[in-house]
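Example (one chain per record):
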Amino acid sequence: MKRALVTGGSGDIGKAICITLAKNDHHVFVHANANAAKAEVVVKEIRDGGGCADVITFDVTDHHACERALGALCEQGAIDILVNNAGISIDAPMAGMSYETWTNVIDVSLNGFFNVTRPLLMPMIKKRSGGRIINVSSVIGLTGHRGQANYAAAKGGLHSATKTLALELASRNITVNAVAPGIIDAGMALGKFDPELIKKVVPMQRAGTAFEVSSLVGFLASEDSSYITGQVISVNGGLA
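Predicted structure:
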């Protein structure tokens, strides 16, 4: 049974990813920081369905905390599948954006990717059985959006890091890809978009679901995706 870690596993999209990976017979570590109780609910749902899961808590913005938590986790065995899903958005036009608003978003979405991924790489490499790293991004990292310069910068940086890390790990049979959701009726976007506006801007005329995102993540985590790496794949209903 492969071991999978999903950061931000207590949120809507994170929960869907955790459930999908568990259904694919992986032991899932559901990460949380402030929402440990919600992560416990996800773990219970997975276990009630016959899957294997545990909660792990640490702050992705604290590299020392990540080193400690992930070092202890890898003592039990390398992580085979890493899904970097933790992220936040704090919106403001750049002219009125505070330094804290800029750095808080970068710290979680981009620095958090580094803090979590780096300690897991050598154990994954040394296991010599390949691996999967999947970074959950956003359409905003591809197109930009007013009031979200911090979020766009974090996700755009994540795309470039994905492509570079894919090159570094390709000879080790470790794939690295990013999934870029569009308007998904879950998590930070839940209830924020007018249905009539969605019909106008999304060719499929609806918002996506968390499980439509997690289905792609599940595929990228599988052996069937072994020749796909360095890609940013959108899940956006045709949104340009």
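Caption: The beta strands are 3-6, 27-32, 52-57, 81-84, 131-136, 174-181, 232-235.
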